[in-house]
Amino acid sequence: MTHARAEREALSDLLDRLGPDAPTLCEGWTTADLAAHLVIREHRPDAAGGIAIKPLAGYTASVQNKLKSAKPFPALVDDVRQGPPRWSPYGLVPGLDAAVNTLEFLVHHEDVRRAQPGWEPRELPADLTEIIWKRVSSGARLTLRRSPVGVVLRHTDGRKAGGKKAEPHVVVTGDPMELLLFTFGRQEHARVSYEGDPVSVERLRATKLGM
């Protein structure tokens, strides 16, 4: 089983346990909203564009709300669990699911986990942790492009990745999963540490990061 499939299964199990009205870290979204988002992303290419393209976001939100209202939550979760249809690019292009969905489902799994009381970071497989670090490192310039200060990401093993070159700068240290959440805009729920002047740190923490 790929890591993408394992995270999909784990998230689906968690959604089933929590039901449709539990909170998530996605602002304004319940677990039902998140499930509908994931179904649209893989099953409704006509509406998925608004996930990344702002002028189309209104249509995507409308379709998401209609889907959430029209389909029972267990059926939505089952669609998430089953994954994309065979005709989709994820089914037709070998390796695309792992390349695209590993981080997607990791982050959304944590969006649900960390919105619930008593959460703690998970211990992830070593190979998955290394995949996360490589993706975080290679994508840092994109995910941190809106930062008002320079950013250097530092793995807890000492490795570093440049995020944005500017002065003053902040060094953000954490395990790869925590750095992933940080760079994807979940700063308040990522267990990272900061080195830099307090004003720069607060400006970075308050900025909307991510894709």
Notable traits:
alpha+beta; TIGR03085 family metal-binding protein; 211 residues; Nonspecific Lipid-transfer Protein, Chain A; DinB/YfiT-like; MDMPI_metal-binding
Structure description:
The chain has 211 residues and is of the alpha+beta class. The chain has two domains: 3-113, no CATH class; 126-206, 2-Layer Sandwich (Nonspecific Lipid-transfer Protein, Chain A). Helices cover 54% and strands 9% of the residues. It has ten helices and four strands, in the order H-H-H-H-H-H-H-H-E-E-E-H-E-H. The chain has helices spanning 3-18, 31-43, 45-48, 57-70, 73-82, 89-92, 96-113, 126-143, 176-183, 198-206; strands at residues 150-155, 160-164, 169-174, 193-195. It has a four-stranded mixed sheet. A hairpin with a 4-residue loop joins strand 1 and strand 2. Helix 2 (31-43) crosses helix 4 and helix 8 packs parallel to helix 9 (176-183). The mean pLDDT is 90.
Question: How do you describe this structure in short?
Answer:
The chain has 211 residues and is of the alpha+beta class. It has helices at 3-18, 31-43, 45-48, 57-70, 73-82, 89-92, 96-113, 126-143, 176-183, 198-206; strands at 150-155, 160-164, 169-174, 193-195. The chain folds into two domains: 3-113, no CATH class; 126-206, Nonspecific Lipid-transfer Protein, Chain A.
Task: Note the topology.
Elements: H1 3-18, H2 31-43, H3 45-48, H4 57-70, H5 73-82, H6 89-92, H7 96-113, H8 126-143, E1 150-155, E2 160-164, E3 169-174, H9 176-183, E4 193-195, H10 198-206
Helix pairs in contact: 1-5, 1-7, 2-4, 2-5, 8-9
Organism: Sphaerisporangium corydalis
Domain Mycothiol-dependent maleylpyruvate isomerase metal-binding: 5-41
Protein name: TIGR03085 family metal-binding protein
